[in-house]
Amino acid sequence: MMTDPVAIITGAGGGIGRAVALTLARQGWRLVLAEQEAQALEACRRACASLGAETTAVAGDIGSERDVAALAGAAARLYGGCQGFVSCAGMAGAVREISDYPGDMFRQVLAVNTCGTFYCLKYALPLLRRQGGSFVAIASTSAIRGRANMAGYVASKHAVLGLVRSSALECVGSQVRVNAVLPGPTQTAMIEAIDRMAAEQAPGGGIKRATTAPYGTPDDVAQMVSYLLSPASSHINGASLVVDGGGTVA
Ligand SMILES: NC(=O)c1ccc[n+]([C@@H]2O[C@H](COP(=O)([O-])OP(=O)(O)OC[C@H]3O[C@@H](n4cnc5c(N)ncnc54)[C@H](O)[C@@H]3O)[C@@H](O)[C@H]2O)c1
């Protein structure tokens, strides 16, 4: 590619999104960062810019189709498209048995995690098709297994895999690929909040884990994203790549 490639990253103010942004900044990508938390967004923009990356911040709600369309419009205006899109914004929702799980919260988790990924695919794929590129959805190992007391999150992430697999098939024969990364528990604010909510339900509790491996780091996930955005992964499409230290095979 003649000029530095362009990537859009949602949830860039969070643990994994920020690690992805910094990794791509070091690799010479130009970045368009999206996030609903203004301070975290600006902190990430400044950190990427200090690494020398041309970086634009766009505040917005990924669960709003209008905001995602505006995000894609900003990248189109600035750069005429993008070569990478990382859909990372997400929320955990409640940690409650299903009989006690608030309906409003269930709808909200699906609105952000599932509808948000749908909007990102809807508006990113036309941009990626202009020069070819790679879409990466951050799903979760909760996309391929059940998890007691987290029905909203688990359902939302299973649906993300359906979106990734279907849109990957729509991209066959084009220069665009769509894949999912499935992190296991990763040391960020989200897992801390989940563990806190689980402990409130059952003192001493936390989410049940099959291995004694420590939580992964945001950088573990960022390395996989970087690979999926690179030409080294050019034959990988529609895949679900697990980054969990062995948790799902235990
Ligand atoms: N941390 C884990 O253990 C883990 C495991 C598997 C998958 N994931 C997934 O990784 C992704 C990133 O999570 P994280 O661990 O970095 O958590 P995080 O809470 O640190 O980051 C999530 C970011 O998304 C942003 N966000 C949430 N809702 C948004 C919305 N509607 N619009 C715009 N931005 C929004 C938040 O403000 C936050 O900055 C999520 O999709 C999450 O489900 C996390």
Class from secondary-structure proportions = alpha/beta
Helix content: 40-55%
Q: How many runs of DSSP E, i.e. beta strands?
A: 7
Give, in order, the helices and strands: EHEHEHEHEHEHHE
Low-confidence runs of at least 5 consecutive residues:
none
Sheet-strand content, in percent, reads 15-25%
CATH-level-4 superfamily name: NAD(P)-binding Rossmann-like Domain
Number of H- or I-type helical stretches: 7
Q: Name the ligand types.
A: nicotinamide-adenine-dinucleotide
* Rg: 17 Å
Biggest β-sheet: strands ordered side by side in the sheet: 3-2-1-4-5-6-7
The CATH topology turns out to be Rossmann fold
Coarse morphology:
globular
The CATH architecture term is 3-Layer(aba) Sandwich
Q: What count of domains describes the coordinates?
A: 1
Distance between the termini: 41 Å
The biggest sheet, with number of strands, parallel, antiparallel or mixed sense and barrel status, is: 7 strands, parallel
Please sum up the structure shown.
This protein has helices spanning 15-26, 38-50, 65-79, 103-131, 151-171, 189-201, 218-229, and strands at residues 6-10, 30-35, 55-59, 84-87, 133-138, 176-183, 240-243. With 250 residues, the protein is an alpha/beta fold.
